[in-house]
What we know:
Layout: E1 2-9, H1 17-27, E2 31-35, H2 46-51, E3 56-60, E4 68-72, E5 77-80, E6 92-97, E7 101-107, H3 121-138, E8 147-152, H4 165-168, H5 176-189, E9 192-193, H6 194-198, E10 208-209, H7 216-219, E11 222-223, E12 226-230, E13 238-243, E14 259-264
Helix pairs in contact: 3-5
The structure holds one DNA strand of 15 nucleotides.
Enzyme class: hydrolase
Cofactor: Mg(2+)
Keywords: Hydrolase, Magnesium, Metal-binding
Amino acid sequence: MSLRITTWNANSIRLRESSLKRIVAEIRPDVLCLQEIKVEDDKFPYDLCRELGFPHLHVHGQKAYHGVAVLSKLPLEQCHARKWCGNGDCRHAICTLPGGIELHNFYIPAGGDIPDPEANPKFRHKLDMLEELTGYFGGRKGDGARMVVLGDLNIAPLETDVWSHRQLLDVVSHTPVETEGLIRLQEAYGFVDAVRTVIPPSQKLFTWWSYRNRDWDASDRGRRLDHIWLSPALAPHLVTAEVRRAARGWENPSDHVPVTVELSVRP
DNA sequence: ATGGTGGATTTTCCA
């Protein structure tokens, strides 16, 4: 069977009803992972999600900041969250999909403006979470899990993941300490960057464009911050991957667009 | 070099 999994940073789910409907209608994900829902669990739009065909919901939200959710047409099992960096931020959800596929939905800290962990606690937090994740997944290397790791990782690792590699080397999201840290995390377990398997690194590819640019499409000063990785056991089942750039031009858009993989798996 | 916009909750913080 074909399994379509989408990740999307909604930047406030309560303001994105029309975008959510379009994603469901036009991308038709079986599983939709959200970040930055910016709402507490009891204020999440459960009924809307059920009406859109997702009876299985796992919401890990908090007031005003962060928050992740998994919407699924297929049953979800063992939904839970892990605690990272010893705080209560809702930046991660884990669910098991049919066929024993372990799904990790992440919202890694943006990291503030100053790329110096001594001067900027938010950047320190970002690097700390990366390192903790590297230790966790590194410790599981070779366990043979069928795993999807996705979300807003807030780092654009490749030169072609930003509009200007040279001009962004000192900008949080593309500094060497971050890009090298993200690659270390990826390699600690041996994750395959699914989207870059389909769209080669020779092509520029972005998933986020700042609201601050007058004409996001014409200036095209984007970054690839949203990712979908597959474990070695799952990577051979990748069929295709897609970034829905057009979503940035929808009415009242999020600043991030949906990223989707299609897998061919036996449940 | 600077500031630009948008979201949630205020009298600013975060991205």
